[in-house]
């Protein structure tokens, strides 16, 4: 399934979970910001 | 490595504990004022003995935002410095001197508020005028904290002299950055208090320049919140990894984050003044851009924290994508309380980005959304981390053990806090979006339909506030139990080591002249032109209004 | 300084989001002109009624064009002064047709006040010595409460006024 090639130098530090966690955080920020921006535009 | 841990010196322990007593007594008084406010605002309760809503609001803000935080932080930082670089007798004496000045200032200000002569809230915006001792007391707190600053600077300088060519211990480096930030920021507060407020309140001058005083206040006011946050970051970066059985993800990234905070947390005060007259919107936007720069070190921190957790879990043999999450010591309050704080920082930080968003600020400016926001940041993220620190710091200073009982109580305390804050801050955020104002007593606004809608949310704020007050009673009990009643013994002062996979720390991170130089350059860039404009186009000054607050 | 591959991607993503926010705000502010209220005019706070905008007859709601209105207000502890009607009674409520362009301008004779029309983007600080102003177009009808959202003294929470946005028949 996983087509990605693992880089040798980073194989010691598997941070996939971290990556997914911070990306969820990033999306939360984006969505919240645009909700309030939507309120600003609608008023 | 010279980061080697010494046992904390007994005399240093006393110094730190002196700060902690003030902090936790403040927590109790300030918390009591907080719950009373939410009661008044729910419309179901009237304050007895002619005590005013704005008087308890002033006490709440001053004692929690200024006294509790400053005393806890200065004390905690002395503990870190004592552990990492040590403290000479002379340094300890100057630290005590600073402590007594801060305490004297606090008491002076507190008495002025209690006799009802300073109902000006903790931001004390002119031209509302308090009795002079309010400002003099605040000035003394700042001056006392400067003595702590210079004591910390001297501690690291002396260590470096004895350890030529070595990089400074991470925690000592962080403390010095935070104190540099504090010193540079409080210069603005000192300027407005000493040059504007004190002569004006004493009647030596008739009028005050309102916009200049607000600008100097907010030059201080934003780095103030980073002065609160950075000690929490110290614990996250350099202490939590030890507690979870891991290592510091990267020493250099931790230092880089702190340097970025120093540079970008000061030239951003206009984002608190976005809806004010007298400031060109171009300069407001420039400071908004700089504000967004200060988000970057927090993005870095988010990654470093998750990475620390993931690596610790993986080293214990958890291989699945999120398996490492289970490896975290969820039942250890030293981890759980700060972790609850970290999770809270996700909505808290997001709210901060929204607040600073230039014209979008009009949606939430001075609504109770803002109050909800900083009860998540300082009132949850920072304070739960401070509680998390206390569970090991206090017993390790008093030579007692962190017992299972304290651990359990601490876990309950954290849950209570999270539930109370979810209810209170959540309803504050929603009511704020509907337009409900902050810092206002109970009012039906002449029977307005909108105001009726807000009252429901004010009742849930009172419910959340009451739950939080239970949390405060619990925490104060835990504090005194750890000081006087817990069984004698040894409690570890946890300090983490850097991961062996981490890159070596580059030398330029210790180039203090460079970082201070850039910080000053950014401040001059962001403030010089608008400040000169403000002075050039000043309207006539304002006389004081002391009758409006009685 | 070496960054982990994922950390680089995360930082690029995060910083790009921040840049996106700033571009959206910047286009709004500098291209569409929705700057936050930042009026630069000054006034002697002891003589505001001598200023053109705040003379007795100019207070309150004034129609200045087909679809354009100016609302001038003097804030003071603990009241918003919208002037007097033709019969000499204090005005306690104004009505503005939906969709009209309204310029709010306000100043204070004493301390700092807030000027917030709850539930709208009308939200600005009113400070002694300055006139602040804000342009808006009301998109929805309804009754909005003007409140003071900056602490101004013991009666701060009593400062209120009613603004009704009505259908234009």
Automatic annotation (TrEMBL), chain A:
Domain of life of the native organism: Bacteria
Matching InterPro entries: Cyt_c_oxidase_su2a
Entry keywords, A to Z: Membrane, Transmembrane, Transmembrane helix
Transmembrane domains' residue ranges: 20-41
Cited Pfam families: CoxIIa
Protein name: Cytochrome c oxidase subunit IIa family protein
Species annotation: Saliterribacillus persicus
UniProtKB/TrEMBL annotation, chain B:
Protein transport listed as a keyword: no
Protein name: Cytochrome c oxidase subunit 1
Regions crossing the membrane: 21-40, 52-76, 97-118, 130-149, 170-198, 218-240, 252-270, 290-312, 333-354, 374-394, 415-435, 455-480, 514-532
Taxonomic classification: Bacteria, Bacillati, Bacillota, Bacilli, Bacillales
GO molecular function: cytochrome-c oxidase activity; heme binding
Keyword annotations of the record: Electron transport, Heme, Iron, Membrane, Metal-binding, Respiratory chain, Transmembrane, Transmembrane helix, Transport
Span of domain Cytochrome oxidase subunit I profile: 4-484
Membrane topology: Multi-pass membrane protein
InterPro entries reported for this sequence: Ba3-like_Oxidase_I, Cyt_c_oxase-like_su1_dom, Cyt_c_oxase-like_su1_sf, Cyt_C_Oxase_1, Cyt_c_Oxase_su1_BS
Recorded GO CC terms: membrane
Organism per entry: Saliterribacillus persicus
Family membership noted in the UniProt record: Belongs to the heme-copper respiratory oxidase family.
Record's subcellular location: Membrane
Principal subcellular localization: membrane
Keyword Transmembrane helix recorded: yes
Gene Ontology BP annotations: aerobic respiration
UniProtKB/TrEMBL annotation, chain C:
Protein name: Cytochrome aa3 subunit 2
Presence of the UniProt keyword Transferase in the record: no
Tree of life domain: Bacteria
Subcellular location: Cell envelope
Taxon lineage: Bacteria, Bacillati, Bacillota, Bacilli, Bacillales
One Pfam family named in its UniProt record: COX2
Role according to the record: Subunits I and II form the functional core of the enzyme complex. Electrons originating in cytochrome c are transferred via heme a and Cu(A) to the binuclear center formed by heme a3 and Cu(B).
Keyword match Transmembrane: yes
Sample GO molecular function, one term: cytochrome-c oxidase activity
A Gene Ontology term for the protein's cellular component: cell envelope
Catalyzed chemical reaction(s): 4 Fe(II)-[cytochrome c] + O2 + 8 H(+)(in) = 4 Fe(III)-[cytochrome c] + 2 H2O + 4 H(+)(out)
Residue ranges occupied by any Cytochrome oxidase subunit II copper A binding domain in the UniProt entry: 66-169
Membrane-spanning ranges: 9-31
PROSITE patterns recorded: COX2 (PS00078), COX2_CUA (PS50857)
Keywords, in A-Z order: Copper, Membrane, Metal-binding, Transmembrane, Transmembrane helix
Entries under InterPro entries matching the protein: Ba3_CcO_II_C, CcO_II-like_C, Copper_CuA, Cupredoxin, NosZ/Cyto_c_oxidase_sub2
Major localization listed first in the record, in broad terms: other
Organism: Saliterribacillus persicus
């Amino acid at each position: 399934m996983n087509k990605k090639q693992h880089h040798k130098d980073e194989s010691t530090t598997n941070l996939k979970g971290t990556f997914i966690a911070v990306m969820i955080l990033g999306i939360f920020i984006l969505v919240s910001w645009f909700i309030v921006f939507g309120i600003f535009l609608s008023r | 490595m010279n980061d080697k841990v010494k046992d904390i010196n007994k005399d240093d322990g006393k110094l730190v504990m002196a700060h902690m007593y003030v902090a936790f007594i403040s927590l109790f008084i300030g918390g009591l004022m907080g719950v009373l406010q939410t009661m008044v605002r729910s419309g179901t309760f009237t304050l007895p003995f002619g005590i005013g809503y704005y008087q308890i609001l002033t006490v709440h803000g001053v004692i929690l935002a200024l006294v509790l935080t400053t005393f806890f932080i200065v004390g905690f930082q002395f503990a870190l410095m004592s552990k990492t670089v040590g403290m000479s007798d002379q340094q300890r004496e100057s630290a005590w001197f600073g402590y007594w000045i801060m305490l004297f200032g606090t008491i002076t200000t507190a008495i002025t508020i209690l006799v009802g002569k300073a109902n000006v809230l903790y931001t004390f915006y002119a031209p509302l005028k308090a009795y002079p001792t309010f400002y003099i007391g605040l000035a003394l707190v700042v001056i006392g904290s400067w003595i702590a600053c210079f004591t910390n600077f001297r501690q690291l300088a002396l260590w470096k002299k004895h350890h030529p060519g070595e990089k400074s211990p991470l925690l000592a480096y962080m403390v010095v950055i935070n104190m540099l930030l504090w010193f540079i920021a409080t210069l603005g507060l000192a300027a407005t208090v000493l040059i504007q407020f004190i002569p004006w309140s004493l009647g030596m001058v008739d009028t005050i320049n309102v916009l200049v005083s607000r600008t100097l206040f907010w030059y201080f006011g934003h780095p103030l919140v980073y002065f609160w946050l950075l000690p929490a970051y110290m614990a996250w970066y350099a202490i939590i990894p030890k507690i979870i059985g891991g290592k510091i993800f990267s020493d250099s990234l931790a230092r880089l984050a702190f340097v970025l905070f120093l540079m970008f947390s000061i030239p951003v005060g206009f984002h608190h003044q976005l809806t004010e007259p007298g400031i060109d919107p171009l300069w407001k936007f420039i400071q908004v851009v700089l504000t967004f720069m200060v988000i970057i070190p927090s993005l870095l921190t988010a990654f470093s924290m998750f990475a620390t957790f993931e690596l610790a879990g993986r080293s214990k043999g958890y291989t699945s994508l999120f398996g490492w999450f289970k490896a975290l010591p969820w039942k250890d309050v030293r981890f759980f309380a700060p972790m609850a704080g970290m999770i809270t920082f996700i909505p808290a930080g997001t709210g901060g980005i929204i607040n600073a968003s230039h014209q979008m600020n009009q949606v939430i400016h001075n609504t109770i959304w803002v109050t909800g926001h900083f009860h998540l940041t300082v009132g949850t993220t920072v304070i739960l981390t401070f509680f998390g620190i206390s569970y090991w710091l206090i017993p390790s200073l008093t030579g007692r053990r962190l017992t299972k009982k304290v651990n359990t109580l601490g876990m309950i305390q954290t849950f209570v806090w999270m539930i109370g804050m979810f209810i209170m801050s959540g309803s504050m955020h929603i009511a704020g979006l509907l337009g409900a104002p902050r810092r206002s007593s109970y009012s039906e606004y002449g029977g307005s339909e909108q105001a009726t809608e807000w009252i429901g949310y004010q009742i849930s704020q009172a419910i959340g506030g009451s739950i939080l007050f239970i949390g405060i009673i619990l925490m104060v009990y835990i504090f005194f139990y750890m000081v006087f009643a817990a069984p004698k013994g040894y409690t570890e002062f946890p300090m983490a080591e850097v991961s062996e996979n981490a890159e070596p720390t580059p030398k330029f991170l210790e180039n203090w002249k460079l970082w201070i130089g850039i910080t000053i350059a950014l401040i001059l860039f962001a403030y010089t032109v608008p400040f000169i404009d403000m002075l050039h186009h000043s309207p006539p000054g304002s006389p004081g209004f002391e009758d409006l607050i009685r | 300084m070496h960054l982990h591959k994922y950390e680089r991607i995360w930082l690029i993503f995060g910083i790009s989001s921040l840049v996106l926010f700033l571009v959206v705000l910047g286009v709004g502010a500098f291209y569409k002109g929705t700057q936050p209220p930042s009026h630069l005019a000054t006034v002697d706070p002891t003589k505001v009624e001598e200023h053109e905008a705040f003379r007795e007859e100019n207070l309150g709601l004034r129609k200045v064009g087909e679809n354009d209105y100016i609302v001038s207000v003097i804030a003071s502890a603990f009241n918003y002064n919208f002037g007097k009607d033709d019969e000499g009674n204090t005005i306690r409520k104004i009505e503005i047709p939906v969709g009209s362009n309204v310029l709010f301008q306000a100043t204070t004779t004493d301390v700092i006040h807030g000027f917030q029309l709850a539930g709208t983007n009308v939200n600005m600080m009113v400070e002694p010595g300055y006139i602040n102003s804000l342009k808006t177009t009301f998109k929805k009808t309804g009754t909005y409460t003007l409140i003071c959202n900056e602490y101004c003294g013991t009666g701060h929470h009593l400062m209120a006024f009613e603004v009704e946005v009505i259908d234009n028949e």
